[in-house]
Design a protein that fits this description.
6 helices, 165 residues, Four Helix Bundle (Hemerythrin (Met), subunit A), globular, mainly alpha
């Protein structure tokens, strides 16, 4: 005969399972939120980093700060194309086409808007594959960490690490 403790345990497990189901969000929603969050942080850095330091390189053979932003933007452009079902290659955008901070920031904002529009417009695309989005999120997050190093090497505190007002 089951004990009171067995019934209590079973009830607690059922309640936990129901609560977990309630709090689950959709894969498209989670993907969109994560994509937006990483791009928001990188855009904030692109806007915040001093223009006169956009050509700064941690080492001579590495990309400059501005070139890293353009490199990240390449991933957003790829994701938007792949998300629309276009045949897409992850082609590197040429940073020379964006010689100023203002041009880089504007182009990065456009890449975010374009890829976000694709995410919102085609939730059915997730049923086929979430790979392009996961790859781009991972790529962007890795380069976010690199951008933090550019900040620190210049004696600047990254926006996300600054005290909140």
């Amino acid at each position: 005969m089951p004990s009171l403790a067995s019934y209590a345990t079973a009830a607690a497990l059922c309640a936990a399972a129901a609560l977990a189901q309630e709090k689950q969000s959709s894969t498209p929603g989670e993907l969109s939120q994560t994509f937006a969050a990483v791009n928001r942080q990188i855009l904030e850095m692109a806007q915040d980093f001093p223009e006169d330091k956009y050509s700064f390189r941690l080492r001579p053979e590495m990309r400059s700060f501005g070139e890293v932003i353009v490199h990240i933007m390449s991933g957003n452009v790829y994701a938007a194309k792949a998300g629309r079902g276009e045949k897409a290659n992850w082609d590197e955008l040429n940073a020379k086409n964006y010689p100023t901070k203002a041009q880089i920031v504007a182009a990065f904002q456009k890449s975010i808007a374009d890829s976000t529009a694709v995410l919102k417009a085609s939730p059915e695309a997730y049923k086929k594959s979430i790979d392009p989005w996961l790859s781009v999120i991972e790529h962007s997050a890795e380069h976010y960490g690199l951008l933090v190093a550019y900040y620190r090497a210049n004696g600047i505190v990254p926006p996300a690490s600054r005290p909140k007002k």
